[in-house]
hydroxymethylglutaryl-CoA lyase
Amino acid sequence: MTMPNYVKIVEVGPRDGLQNEKAMVPTDVKVALINQLTDAGFVNIEAASFVSPKWVPQMADGADVMARIQRRAGTLYSALTPNMKGFEGAIAAGADEVVIFGAASEAFSQKNINCSIAESIARFAPVAAAAKEQGVRLRGSISCALGCPYQGEVPVSSVVDVVRRMRELGCDEIDIADTIGVGTPGRVQEVMRAAAAEFALDRISGHFHDTYGQALSNILASLEVGVAIFHASVAGLGGCPYAKGATGNVATEDVLYMLHGMGIHTGIDLEAVVRAGDYISQAIGRANSSRVGRALLTKWAAASDAAPACV
Ligand code: HMG
Ligand code: MG
């Protein structure tokens, strides 16, 4: 299998990255972040979640965020939609893609969306049908594909089963998500190959949280089996409110640095993403978790200190 020469990066920082923040992030900050990411050249940004505000208060301003961002033609702005109420909110807000999110683990499904896997598929069915009817792109996300914080091991067959059900619902793209970042490259390849036996490989994505520091290796392992879509979060922000201790997604800056270094195109301006990562880290008062972001910011600061003063 040859490596892809183009990779689509789905920037999930504004949603996965911010959803776990305890203090409310002002809507203006979310909008400014998405606008900076748009300018950096992403073709897909996960911008909001239309979930219960009691479950995830940080995402309650999704409609406002979507109304105020400056959209770029060619960029899809996605939103999470666990049920019809979420779907209606997302469509009213002009989402280009809706995301139904299930799990390969029964225990996580209960904790995250308060129902069994089978019940979740039944809830997703009308969302999927409505998305198809309205011509809106439909993505399916499968949490705990590499392990579960409650149940531990997750059999590959459980992942494959949900991939099949999401395919039957008509998903255009399916995310294999390592919610708690426990996967390692060999297992990741096994899961990706098994998923690809059920669904087109070029529409499967890798969504890796970096809790155990395995995410970049897992991306490389996925590239080796032909996966060419990855999710990443600017400055490595984030975590899942229903997966305690899970850290953010792999940092977008680190993924871009690796891919560009390998000669793989993304169409994204790394330096612009580093500046966006610096902006959001300062705005929410968090250390920047991107190694590449920190390295480049330090290098730029040193270069500007060394520059002769203007006279
Ligand atoms: P429930 O309590 O079983 O739902 O929650 P319900 O239908 O009984 O409704 C309860 C209340 O929520 C009602 O309000 C509904 O109106 C309201 P009340 O009558 O009590 O005032 N409600 C809603 N409000 C706004 N938008 C909606 C909505 N639906 C119901 N869409 C539910 C079920 C799915 C709603 C809930 O469990 C929920 O919102 N869960 C979301 C959890 C979440 O957002 N988790 C993080 C995102 S997933 C993730 O991060 C993983 C991912 O990154 C991949 C990975 O890394 O693994 C994608
Ligand atoms: Mg996630």
User: Anything to note?
Assistant: The beta strands are 8-11, 44-49, 76-80, 97-103, 137-143, 173-178, 204-208, 229-232. Residues 16, 19, 49-52, 54-56, 80, 82-83, 85-86, 89, 101, 112-114, 141, 143, 177, 179, 207, 209, 240-242 surround 3-hydroxy-3-methylglutaryl-coenzyme A (ligand 1) (CB under 6 Å). The radius of gyration is 19 Å. The mean pLDDT is 96.
